[in-house]
Amino acid sequence: MARLIWLMGASGAGKDSLLNALREQPPEGMLVAHRYITRPADAGGENHIALTESEFQRRRAYGLFALDWQAHQTAYAVGIEVDIWLARGWNVMVNGSRQHLPQAQQRYASRLFPLCLQVSPAILEARLRQRGRESEQQIARRLRRAQETTLPDCPQLNNDGALNDTLNALRHLLGATP
């Protein structure tokens, strides 16, 4: 059975880096889905499909999203193409939302594989400072939120070290080969 792998983790944990690496060298039978987001394509961070608010709402009304949610004054969605890929037997990984995991669980039930990308607080703080997108106040908020948000029964994938080590651990966890 094909699975929707719902990758979650704090901002700065390395989700984008991991997803970009998987796009280059995915395990056999896996696709990485883009999210549709109401922010400019050149805003930095995630490789996404940028939509205006009106275009996002139009696509939502047409039923073109499998899942959608709001966070940080921004709209996010996963397209219905993931359902086609799953039906064809492909595993699909997506940058998921911790707060909207229940929505994904409701839609995908046993086909959903939640995965928590973890980093130690010191490494998370260093990464947030290095990327230079947040103020000190925003960094402090993100660090607090990362420590407050824990998900029970979510397999953990540690990303403290080299990205290649994380990729190898992911392949092992999923029982996949390159």
TrEMBL record:
<dbReference type="InterPro" id="IPR008144">
    <property type="entry name" value="Guanylate_kin-like_dom"/>
</dbReference>
<dbReference type="GO" id="GO:0033863">
    <property type="term" value="F:ribose 1,5-bisphosphate phosphokinase activity"/>
</dbReference>
<dbReference type="GO" id="GO:0005524">
    <property type="term" value="F:ATP binding"/>
</dbReference>
<dbReference type="GO" id="GO:0006015">
    <property type="term" value="P:5-phosphoribose 1-diphosphate biosynthetic process"/>
</dbReference>
<comment type="similarity">
    <text>Belongs to the ribose 1,5-bisphosphokinase family.</text>
</comment>
<keyword id="KW-0547">Nucleotide-binding</keyword>
<protein>
    <recommendedName>
        <fullName>Ribose 1,5-bisphosphate phosphokinase PhnN</fullName>
        <ecNumber>2.7.4.23</ecNumber>
    </recommendedName>
</protein>
<comment type="function">
    <text>Catalyzes the phosphorylation of ribose 1,5-bisphosphate to 5-phospho-D-ribosyl alpha-1-diphosphate (PRPP).</text>
</comment>
<keyword id="KW-0418">Kinase</keyword>
<dbReference type="InterPro" id="IPR027417">
    <property type="entry name" value="P-loop_NTPase"/>
</dbReference>
<dbReference type="InterPro" id="IPR008145">
    <property type="entry name" value="GK/Ca_channel_bsu"/>
</dbReference>
<dbReference type="InterPro" id="IPR012699">
    <property type="entry name" value="PhnN"/>
</dbReference>
<dbReference type="GO" id="GO:0019634">
    <property type="term" value="P:organic phosphonate metabolic process"/>
</dbReference>
<dbReference type="GO" id="GO:0005829">
    <property type="term" value="C:cytosol"/>
</dbReference>
<keyword id="KW-0067">ATP-binding</keyword>
<keyword id="KW-0808">Transferase</keyword>
<feature type="domain" description="Guanylate kinase-like">
    <location>
        <begin position="2"/>
        <end position="175"/>
    </location>
</feature>
<dbReference type="Pfam" id="PF00625">
    <property type="entry name" value="Guanylate_kin"/>
</dbReference>
<comment type="pathway">
    <text>Metabolic intermediate biosynthesis; 5-phospho-alpha-D-ribose 1-diphosphate biosynthesis; 5-phospho-alpha-D-ribose 1-diphosphate from D-ribose 5-phosphate (route II): step 3/3.</text>
</comment>
